[in-house]
Amino acid sequence: MDTDSNTGTFRPFILVAEDDDSNFKLIKAIIGKKCDIEWAKNGQEMVDLFEQYHDKTHALLMDIKMPIMTGLEATGIIRKQDPEIPIIMQTAYAFSSDREAAMAAGATEVLVKPITLNTLRNCLSKYFPALTWT
């Protein structure tokens, strides 16, 4: 859904890859009232969801370290299908090598966990200027 049927406001559809329940709940609490979200618990689920919802997906939030398939691997696969979609990677590690690896895999941005309300909302607002948080 691109617009809220009640208000007519823009609602981005965002796929979130996060293997930790509490981290996903935090993301949902931060953006869930203004964005439509689908949850993948590992990189393979993210690739599958992206294939299923590619036509309506506006952005991806991708954890780097996940079971089954890492966020780096999933990003590489998704980038082959869509070189333009914003992929915002999240890492618990603030090392420059993690950031460089994420950017090399095709990330548009890299955020360091714990992700704060302002950091995530400001990041999404860069890609979706029509999105308002008030």
Give a brief rundown of this model.
By secondary structure, the chain is an alpha/beta fold. It has helices spanning 21-31, 43-53, 71-81, 96-105, 117-127; strands at 13-17, 36-40, 59-63, 87-91, 109-112. The two termini are 20 Å apart.
Structural commentary:
By secondary structure, this protein is of the alpha/beta class. The protein has one domain (13-127): Response regulator (Rossmann fold, 3-Layer(aba) Sandwich), CATH 3.40.50.2300. Helices cover 40% and strands 18% of the residues. The protein has 5 helices and 5 strands. The chain has helices at residues 21-31, 43-53, 71-81, 96-105, 117-127; strands spanning 13-17, 36-40, 59-63, 87-91, 109-112. It has a 5-stranded parallel beta sheet with strand order 2-1-3-4-5, with helices on both faces. α4 (96-105) links the parallel β4 (87-91) and β5 (109-112). The longest helix is centred in the first third of the chain and has 11 residues, at 21-31.
Structural class by secondary-structure content: alpha/beta
| Strand order of the biggest β-sheet | 2-1-3-4-5
What would CATH call the homologous superfamily?
Response regulator
Provide the β-strand percentage band: 15-25%
Separation of termini?
20 Å
| Strand count | 5
**The first-level CATH class name:** Alpha Beta
Whole-number count of domains: 1
Number of helices: 5
- Which fold name corresponds to the CATH topology? Rossmann fold
Q: What is the multimeric organization of the chains shown?
A: single chain
If classified by CATH, what would the architecture be?
3-Layer(aba) Sandwich
Strand-and-helix sequence, N→C?
EHEHEHEHEH
The geometry reads as globular
As residue ranges, the low-confidence spans are: none
Helix share, percent: 40-55%
Radius of gyration (Å): 14 Å
Mean pLDDT, to the nearest integer, reads 92
Largest sheet: 5 strands, parallel
